[in-house]
């Protein structure tokens, strides 16, 4: 039996209320202040190839690059860079299991480090997203929405990036090899961190004074896992939209596909990739998502004191909005002005999340937010769900792994296999497989990928380390409620004082790691975590800006709109006067 929407609203309300009761207004603390990092100058870039030695590690190239610009991802996302040394290398080169019974698949933890000529004394581990499998440029990009000059590298950090131990972006073959699974989950971080610090020592004559870890999506999960497993290695953790319980979230994506599948007409052709994608995407059209979003906006926009297209009061919205009551229901044909009863059922089930036959939730629910009308929400929930998650659930997260005949979801055969796996997956069985172990696979995916319900951050706290979390309220991949639940549990475990070392900031309207009707550009976030760690000054609020290049912005928003992101559970509330496009006209207030 599905969780009723009133229960969803009650759950998020209780979570907010409990954290609100426990939250501390006083940021003064007796916890250590770690002190500011001190700069140094790079000695010799190319000499590091021969000079540096570390167990099971080879530096394969070293090149000094002049100050200029770099295309971060090959898609025209240009960032300013200082003069720096770029190094590439490999750790733990070995042979392991691969596709079709291969016993000698080549594996290594490949990495790139960028060391600025003028170093600020700080090190940042850039955690990458998705399935890893690719060494992204080590520039210290936390969110792809940051400004031209806001990368960690440009600020003077030494930065590392890796493929987490396997080669092949988006490929799932590594799930057949247990060590590759472990490296993807946490092993690469454990091995690369001491190596990177040793390399920095050789390059500058000292190890980093302060070390930071940052990432969004699976990179956010990497960051959370680092804080949980290796709290002594890093001083500051910058977390975005984390997949804290990623295997459960991936299964939940496939549950969504199953729900959409019930809306596909019985006579619809499903023999090609194009037909399957069109059938899924036809179950709820963009205009119908727009209707749902506008219905949410109508009920919730004014709750924060201003009708401005931003729903800051997430908890109030869950109480104010009801999909069955507040969205027009079709009497006849779909025409974009209504949802059918079956569409409401499906969307309600997806927002509530899957349950096991016992009635227990497999994963948490998703709060309603007007960012559901953005293209990123539908993309992640519909065709992208089975094309990205089916092979991953089967081969990387299930124990024993299930090998697909074809992982190429750009082909008919590959996408059909992924779709059939998704719609045929039993939730009880999936839950068993992501928690299972065998003699060959001694750690389950919920062990090597997830936080395991950990709330003890005593080592991190007592060292003086700090954590800042950002999460979009309209994230369709990793529910913001999951992060809220984690924060509330940690707050309870720390007698209501979690905000002494960890602060959570929600970004209204933002989809997964950016976009949506949101002020999703947070240019000061790296400075904020550094200031908190090194001077003890915690950010009261964080200013977020709209981006002109964000095509999801409403046309009536100013291109330079700004808003304060408030520490959870406070809500950005309009002061009653002042420029509605400026963050200066808003205050952070706890909901009643």
What report would you give on this structure?
The chain has 592 residues and is α/β, with parallel strands linked by helices. It folds into two domains: 5-22 and 248-445, no CATH class; 40-242 and 451-551, Rossmann fold (3-Layer(aba) Sandwich). It is 34% helix and 17% strand. It is built from 18 helices and 17 strands. It has helices spanning 5-22, 48-51, 178-204, 218-229, 246-261, 273-281, 286-300, 314-320, 323-326, 341-352, 375-381, 383-397, 412-424, 427-434, 445-448, 458-463, 480-493, 525-535, and strands spanning 40-41, 57-65, 68-71, 78-81, 84-96, 105-116, 118-119, 122-127, 158-162, 210-216, 236-240, 466-472, 502-507, 542-545, 562-565, 571-574, 586-589. A nine-stranded mixed β-sheet has the order 2-5-6-9-8-10-11-12-13, with helices on both faces. Helix 12 packs across helix 13 (412-424). The longest helix has 27 residues, at 178-204. The two termini are 32 Å apart. Residues 1-28 have low confidence and may be disordered.
